[in-house]
Amino acid sequence: MFNRVLTFVTLALVFSLSPSEAQQAAKIPRVGFVAPQGRSLPLFDAFRQGLADLGYVDGRNIMIEPRFAEGHYERFPDIFAELAGLNVDVLAVTGAVTARAAKKAAPNVPLVFSIVVDPVKDNVVASLEQPGGNLTGVTCFDPEQAKKQLQLLEEIIPGLKRVAVLGDQGVSQALMNASEEQARVLGLQPQPLRVQGPTPDLQAAFAAMKQQHAQALLVLEEPVLGVHAEEVAQLAAKDRLPTMFAPSRVAAGGLIDYGTSQTEAIRHMAAYVDKVLKGAKPDSLPVKTVTRYELIVNLKTAREIGVAVPTAVLKRADRVVE
What would the pLDDT profile of 82-124 be if each residue is shown by its tens digit? Predict the structure, then answer.
């Protein structure tokens, strides 16, 4: 008799819950989001929006746990240990350095990555078709990107010959090597410079650019430079040096932001997280390639450094910052 009464009371309580309360009573998936840079980049917002487009509302039917290393890669073990302690269902990470750290620190947690230049060469996955292990993800890498960026700089700066290329010493040299090679193919003279995080000596880097009479600066899409993008843009403007950033760095105020869309790649990463939450195994999902380009021109910076952006470039721009 007692058991029947207890069952009746339990059922009455369940059916008396509002839809939202009943939803909260069920297990809500928990997703960790880890980036090597800071929150100022639009990547986390793009991830949250990507999940929202799929019906996930943070705090209602999903819990998102964002963590940002701010260029301090030594923080990764503690970050992933903390997220593992929270029993996250999936880890969503950006950058090869983050993906490798996650593989090592949380080998049993499903992992989805994005913004990895070359997932195979960067030792993140065994192959794009069969990533293997507990992970898969999205890459927006176009091996011709540096060439396209440099050709755009040539169009804006007549007679361009010497280009400084600024990279992050804490990550693989794959992107730097590709950029140097493509610069030489175009007949340009690259000046490779790699700075060490988390507090890079940017003053020394710009002094070296000035000494070598660099005519433009290509800022690679690498973590420490994302953290310090605004300072890089300010130092370049002070030296009246035209800069080329990736589209995700538009808030820094460089002259041109051009490349494959990181935010688009992040949205596709959210779609893979959704698949994993619904039961898909990461190693059954091939690494997806997303290469939609964005071109943003900052006319305010152009006026400040005395560069006249050709009309043909302005007509092709997806966005013009006045």
Answer: 999 999 999 999 988 899 999 999 888 999 999 887 888 888 8
Q: Are residues 163 and 226 in the same domain?
A: yes
Full residue range of the structural domain in which residue 86 is found: 2-139+263-291
Nearest-Å Rg of the Cα atoms of the chain is 23
The contacts of residue 290 (CB under 8 Å, 6+ apart) are 138, 139, 140, 260, 261, 264, 265, 268
Indicate if the pLDDT at residue 244 is higher than 90: yes
In this structure, is the dihedral angle defined by the CA atoms of residues 239, 245, 250 and 252, taken in order, positive or negative?
A: negative
The DSSP code sequence of 131-198 is: --TTEEEEE---TTHHHHHHHHHHHHSTT--EEEEEEETTS-SHHHHHHHHHHHHTT-EEEEEEE-SS
SS3 state at 51 = helix
Q: Nearest CA to 33 among 92, 88, 119, 75?
A: 92
Centre a 10 Å sphere on the Cβ of residue 143 and count the other Cβ atoms it contains. Answer: 10
- Sheet-wide strand order for 111-114: 63-68, 30-35, 90-94, 111-114, 135-139, 288-289
Same-domain check for residues 11 and 87: yes
Q: Is the peptide bond before 198 cis (omega within 30 degrees of 0)?
A: yes
CATH value at residue 156 = 3.40.50.2300
Spatial distance between the Cα atoms of 233 and 298, rounded to a whole number of angstroms: 12
Q: How far apart are the first and last CA of the chain?
A: 76
Report the distance separating Cα 291 and Cα 142, nearest Å: 7
Between CA 239 and CA 136 the distance in angstroms is 42
Beta-bridged to residue 164, according to DSSP, are: 191, 217
